[in-house]
Amino acid sequence: MFKALVLEQEDKKTLATIRQVATSELPEGDVLIDVDYSSLNYKDGLAITGKGRIVRQFPMVPGVDLAGTVAESSDDRYHVGDKVVLTGWGVGEGHWGGMAEKARLNADWLVPLPANLDGKQAMMVGTAGLTAMLCVQAIVDANVKPEDGEILVTGASGGVGSVAVTLLAQLGYKVAAVTGRAETNGPLLKQLGATTIIERSVFEEPARALDKQLWAGAIDTVGSKVLAKVLSQINYNGAVAICGLAGGFDLPTTVMPFILRNVRLQGVDSVMCPFEKRQQAWQRLTELLPTSYFEQACREVTLEQVAECAEAITNGQITGRVVIKL
User: Fold this and answer.
1) Nearest CA-CA partner of 95 in 142, 145, 33
2) Backbone angles phi, psi at 8, to 5 degrees
3) In order of start, what are the domains of the chain with their CATH numbers?
4) Most buried pick, 44, 82, 141, 179, via CB within 10 A?
5) In what residue span(s) does the Enoyl reductase (ER) domain sit (predicted)?
6) How many Å apart are CA 45 and CA 274, to the nearest integer?
């Protein structure tokens, strides 16, 4: 038996309870893992609170991320004692996830834990950090250089945004960070490397088809009217990497930025990201993230505190990463 956070549905309401679960209840998989750490993402918050239609079947153990040690394996790639990390692949949505002391998973979903990271540090990075790295790489691949101008990051105080700010700063970019709590989050974002702090309300005003060119590129985690405003202000030949919809999945914009300013809009997905690209991103993260990131941008909680944190993250009240010690 082991401890797990289990989601069940009753009268169309999601109920989250911590209970003892038998190993025999775990879903099928090639590798049994003793979970050391998980993390709380925005998607996890939606699943646990029931505010979003994330979970596809009940009962479900949430947690799209985990880091742990292989306890059993029927796959030659992984052996007992190996340290591994998992992000994405629908885990915590359609397959029991990381918010439990044990998990049984498909070996194809795993990545060996980078040698210079421990499990807690890996979860400080997690899906958010992997997504941020893929977004930053999209900006680099679009040939947007540090000397071209500032890179805007929306939702900068969240998991993806805070890592993106850090990575961009490490690569020499000047970063303008957009947050809904500039007064409280500004100091931390500046410590992470932001050069400019902007209140989110500025980007919630209706967007023109084209506005003054202000940004060489952008990483957007919000969507909707915020993204529309961002697109209208991107420099000629700029690029925007998008990975979130915290503000909505609509996009009230026009084709003008794309056909008159040659702006590139690049979608970024980390859930189904292929193994090779995923492994490269993890390696790049370990090279770029400074020690200071791990000292500043994390809050560690127990499984018993997760429900409260899930409510907070869906209300925009969490800064940085939340790591769950199992």
Assistant:
1) 33
2) -135, 160
3) 2-113+290-325 (3.90.180.10), 127-267 (3.40.50.720)
4) 44
5) 13-324
6) 25
